[in-house]
Amino acid sequence: MIDPATCHRGIFEIDAPLPGYAFPTTVSYRPVSGRLWTASDGIYRTVFLEGDEGVIAFDTFWSPAAAGSYRTAIERVFPGREIHTVIYSHEHLDHCGFASDLAPEASRIIAHEEAARVISARGSDGQAVPSETWSGERRSFSIDGAEFELINPGATHGNGNVAAWFPDAGALFMVDTVIPGVAYTFIPDWHLDSYLPNMRRLEALEWESFIPGHFWPLDREGFSDNLAYYERISEAAREALAEGVDPDDYGAIDRWSRERLGAELGRMFRFQEYIGMNVMRYMLHHVTGGWGLEDAGGARAGEPL
Amino acid sequence: MSVEQLGDGVYTASDRDHRSMFVLGDDGAVVLGGLGGVEQPPQVAAVIATIDHLDHSGAVAELADGAELVAHELCSRVMERRGARGQRPADRLIRGEGEELTLAGVRLRLLYPGPTQGTGNLAVHLPDHRVLFLVGPRADARYGLLPDFHLRHVTRCWRELAALDVDVVVPGRGALMDREQLIRAADYIDALKRAAQEAFAEGVPIWVIQAMEPFVADRLRDRFGDLEGFDRHVGIGAIRVVHHYLMGGWGMEDTAQPEALFDVSH
How far is A61 from chain B (nearest CA, A)? Predict the structure, then answer.
């Protein structure tokens, strides 16, 4: 058990212990294919690779304690092997904030340059700054006998968010983009202007299993259906605006969403929790035009990867 | 839509919630945002797009047809990339931390204090009229999801602007404010940030609004419960704010070096 008073604190500013960051989690794991494994605490999910000598870990989980549990899981599968490489899927702390707890010995921390720029400027406690960056859309890696490709399809969520493609395993891993069920809360830091066309570019790749950053893997149909859900919510948000629903009034939006979408979508995973927030976020996107440069004109629809 | 005179040649126009401002100059009006609801629109000499969001500056291109369009360089870059009908790149760019200029004989200080809401959000100070225009702060608590707020810097920026010697703060939304109300708006957001962090620290399930809302409302009600909209908006605001801490903020705007935005080439 780590000390909530002295653990890494991310960007928390209050002068108080953070038991939420110190609470131990249970991380389970299973092989995917060949060198590829996946690990999850039931909510968050990631992947790691068996190298000839050591381990390549993607992401760090969401807290110092969860990063420690992830390390324990890897040590159980590959005892005595060093985690020599950590690869960040993007820059958010709840997935990539605690490499200092996961693998302080890691000599290589790799991120896309767009993620690395934010990480360096953020200065978050526990988030190790990448030692290597890459740029552009695609980069093949061969590390310790493991081969894979990182792909940045364009602005989707966060900064420098990349998919990891494992052709030998028929798997594609990407975080906080396609997630089973309705979208998470208010679809935080999604770049809705370009999210759908850029995600659809990944459908051109050969893969059978999509491993998301949360919950369970999906097949290609599940991936496509999930993207179609976003289209539907975007349309529903326009309907709500046209009917005069106040885009700042969560209670009114939640009632409207349950009433209008319940019959159609009500059986989706987490509908009851988040449908109102999902619609609210899209309403505000339509009203404001998007949030920041990442959300303006970044769609690469139809461009081959 | 209603129009209210704030001083000699200075007016504000508002609908139910959104608000803009215009100043009559020597050879036309300088418009901040839009001119909706004005029965006899004056000739427009210049339009200032104070923020990139469509609900404030979505018609500046049409309004500035034949007039000069002014915007901060960061705002103009987004408008250009977005390509929305009704927006276009600015004719005159305000760079860096802002500048003082005279448009149609009206002396203005266009100030960019850092990331607050949206991109390249300019505060407009009319020193001769003791008026400040600013999109973001509100006299009430009706912030909704705090759309495109940059929580790391926003209240520091508002507090710096509250030090200006003005009598009236014209917000982009809601009722007119004074300097004390601008400071109170910063106090409210800071208190919301603190309460959201305490919720996380104390094990409140931060993704459940039915849990976050009562926790944060209880912490803030004594100081801010009198603000209109407090009970309806505090819960969704707390969900938004706690995810700032969970995720680390959004983009370069929420880092310790937001000035790097000026160097990002796209």
Answer: 11
CB contact under 8 A, B55 and A117: no
Place of tokens 């005179």: B5
CA distance A41 to B214: 28
The beta-carbon neighbor of A280 closest among B83, B145, B200 is B145
Q: Are A292 and B119 inside 8 Å of each other by CB?
A: yes
CB within 8 Å: A97 and B248: yes
- For B251, the closest of A127, A277, A292 (CB atoms) is A292
Q: Could B81 and A293 be called an inter-chain contact, meaning their C-beta atoms sit closer than 8 Å?
A: yes
Specify the fold of A19-176.
Metallo-beta-lactamase; Chain A (3.60.15)
Domains and CATH numbers, chain B: 2-135 (3.60.15.10), 195-252 (no CATH)
Q: CA nearest A292 in B: which residue?
A: B119
Nearest to A143 by CA among A56, A243, A249: A56
What are the chain B neighbours of A281 within 8 Å (beta carbons)? 145
Which residue of B74, B201, B248 is in closest CB contact with A19? B201
Q: Is B33 left (phi over 0), alpha (psi -120 to 50) or beta?
A: left
% of chain B surpassing 70 pLDDT: 97
Q: pLDDT of B8-56, one tens digit each?
A: 999 999 988 999 999 999 989 999 987 666 667 789 999 999 999 999 9
Which amino acid, B122? L
**ipTM of this predicted complex?**
0.97
| Element holding A149 (H helix, E strand) | strand A146-151
